[in-house]
Each structure stands twice: as structure tokens, then as C-alpha cells.
Specification:
alpha/beta, Immunoglobulin-like, five-stranded antiparallel β-sheet, five-stranded mixed β-sheet, 6 helices, elongated, binds zinc ion
């Protein structure tokens, strides 16, 4: 009897275990769909790498210890100015700040839908950002892809003294920027920039026609007046100023009345190619073509 009782107890235990296991089985069955949907969510929110280098636009060197904020996340640049951050596919506000360093803040929107490289040339505070921006009313860097600009002087058609004034204006732009900006070529076909001498220009001393593609200058023509009455005011000096002004446009600068300089319109004050203009040209040709200047913030 005892033995059989034991058997009964064993049976009861078996039955209990069976029920328990079946309950566990049901539980695991009922949790299975949740696990599946979690796995799907995981696939959708695959992460991508956002990486790049923050460098000083003037020296070209990487900036260490910069604070990079992307959405809610942040990271610091390493000793070479590199940063890397993993994030799910999303649109983010990307901003950069450097502590105790001489650079402007920068921010832009980034849509991360694949691994993305975003390099940021940082403008040192020693550059007058307001002055720089004053030459780019649309806040976008539009310029030649490469320097020097090939120029056809059109020597045979030039009135007396004009070539000398053109060469002086070119020399002065190159002096203030300490760069090779222009190079004379023999034919119109080779040139990116053509100089024309015309008897009449409507409401101006000169005009500039230019073709742009993807924020790059393709070609350009400066038409300068061969105007007799210039001689009354001193044609040589005046032709120099007109060339100096138009060459500023040819390099990518718009009119700016900030400070006394040659790109002012109407001309005021000293009206010269001043040294700060040389720094502007240096910065413009170090910033990438199409760079959005509104991304840099004045403190
Ligand atoms: Zn102008």
C-alpha cells in the first residue's frame, strides 16, 4: 500500500509538472510575437556612422577636444580633430563648439540615412566673420574651383595704359593675398576670364558676365569702357580702380560697404585693395565650394 501510495504521489507530481511545463510553454508562446516585433524594430533602427574632421580653415590642422553635439548625443574630437558617432537613421541638428580655442561655432542639419562623412572647416575668430559674410549676400561660397584663373588680357584691343592698370590691379590682389590668383593666357579659348574693351556700357564703367555651375565659376567676361572722358578725371587711375573692383568680383566677392575697400558700391572713402581683403580671399579659397556661411555663428 505504501508503495502504491508512493506511486500515486509520483503520479501527482508528474501531473503537476506537466501542467507547469505546459503553462510555461503557453507563456513562451504568448511572448514569442513580442520578441518578433522587437527584433523587427531593431532592424529598422540600424545605426549609421557619422564621422569627419574639424580643422582650422587657415592652418588646415585638426582641432583636438572639440565638442560635437548630434541630437542628444555628443562626442569630442581626438588629437587629430577626428570624431565618430553611431546613430540611428534620423534627421539631426549637428553643432560644433571648441572650448578655449579660437574658432567660431558651427551648426547644420544632417540627415543620417547611410554612413556619412562631415568635415567642418572652422573659421578662426581672428578672421572677421562679419566682414567675410558681407561679400556673400547669399551666404554661399561661389568661386573658381582652382587658381590661378586663366585670363585673356586682349592686349591688341586694349586702349593705351589699360594693360598696365590691369597688371597693377592683379599684382595688388596677389600682394595682399600672397597667392597666385591670375595667369595670362594667349587665347580667348584657353581663358576662364576674358577682358573686353567696349566703347559703351549702360549706366556703368564696366560689366561682368559670368556662368556658374554647382557654385563654381565656369567662365567670365569683364567688359570695360574705353571712355574718353575718363581722361578728364585721370583715366589711368580710374581704370586701375575699375579693374581692381571687377577682379574682386572675378574672385567671387560681391559688393560690400563694410570698411573702406575696393568692393564698395557706390565707391566711398579710400576705395583701395586693403590687406583684410587679402585674408578674405585666402579664407574663401580654403573653404569648400558651396559652403554655407550661415552655418558659422558669431558669438
Ligand atoms: Zn561691382
Amino acid at each position: 500500500m505504501f508503495g502504491s501510495h508512493m506511486e500515486t504521489e509520483k503520479f501527482k507530481l508528474k501531473a503537476y509538472l506537466k501542467r507547469f511545463l505546459s503553462l510555461v510553454g503557453m507563456m513562451s508562446l504568448s511572448t514569442a510575437p513580442i520578441q518578433t516585433s522587437w527584433a523587427e524594430t531593431k532592424t529598422e533602427s540600424k545605426t549609421f556612422t557619422l564621422h569627419g574632421t574639424l580643422s582650422d580653415v587657415q592652418t588646415g590642422g585638426g582641432i583636438a577636444g572639440c565638442f560635437v553635439v548630434v541630437g542628444e548625443d555628443s562626442v569630442r574630437t581626438d588629437s587629430l580633430g577626428h570624431y565618430e558617432i553611431q546613430l540611428p537613421s534620423h534627421a539631426y541638428e549637428f553643432s560644433v563648439r571648441s572650448w578655449g580655442k579660437d574658432h567660431y561655432e558651427y551648426s547644420t542639419l544632417v540627415y543620417l540615412g547611410e554612413d556619412t562623412e562631415l568635415d567642418v572647416p572652422m573659421i578662426p575668430k581672428s578672421t572677421d566673420l562679419k566682414f567675410l559674410k558681407s561679400f556673400f549676400p547669399n551666404d554661399r561660397i561661389i568661386r573658381w574651383e582652382e587658381l590661378p584663373v586663366k585670363v585673356f588680357y586682349n592686349r591688341l584691343k586694349a586702349p593705351g595704359g589699360y594693360i598696365h592698370m590691369l597688371e597693377r590691379a592683379i599684382m595688388d590682389w596677389e600682394f595682399v593675398s600672397n597667392m597666385d590668383l591670375f595667369e595670362e593666357v594667349e587665347t580667348q579659348e584657353e581663358a576662364g576670364l576674358n577682358i573686353r574693351y567696349v566703347p559703351y556700357v549702360k549706366d556703368a564703367e564696366s560689366t561682368i558676365d559670368l556662368h556658374i555651375d554647382s557654385n563654381r565659376f565656369l567662365n567670365m567676361t569683364i567688359s570695360i569702357k574705353t571712355y574718353y572722358s575718363w581722361y578728364i578725371f585721370g583715366a589711368r587711375t580710374y581704370a586701375y580702380k575699375v579693374f581692381a573692383h571687377e577682379l574682386g568680383h572675378a574672385l567671387g566677392l560681391s559688393h560690400s560697404n563694410y570698411a573702406f575697400q575696393i568692393m564698395a558700391s557706390p565707391p566711398e572713402g579710400i576705395w583701395e585693395i586693403t590687406a583684410p581683403l587679402g585674408e578674405i580671399i585666402q579664407t574663401v579659397y580654403k573653404l569648400p565650394v558651396g559652403m554655407n556661411l550661415s552655418s558659422y555663428h558669431l558669438k
